[in-house]
Task: inverse folding
């Protein structure tokens, strides 16, 4: 899977010209594996999405899902919720 992700990144690494402008495309891939990371399409998609956001943040290109990523994502959502509540309540 890592090789496929790297080949995909290489395939789009060259700049594209559109109306005289150079455009650069970056690929971020999140990987989740059946059944280690989920038994259903929705859980696999959610876990791959979590991994993809980490790949984007770290600019690594791809990331495989781990439970630690899930824990970090849940903690971030909890903190964001607390901040919103605190701001609303002053």
Result:
């Amino acid at each position: 899977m890592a090789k496929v992700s790297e080949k995909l990144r290489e395939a789009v690494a060259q700049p594209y010209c559109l109306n005289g402008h150079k455009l650069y495309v970056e690929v971020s891939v999140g990987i989740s594996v059946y059944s280690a990371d989920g038994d259903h399409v929705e859980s696999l998609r959610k876990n791959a999405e979590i991994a993809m956001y980490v790949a984007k943040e770290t600019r690594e290109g791809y990331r495989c899902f781990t439970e630690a990523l899930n824990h970090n994502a849940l903690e971030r959502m909890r903190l964001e919720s607390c901040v919103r509540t605190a701001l609303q309540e002053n």
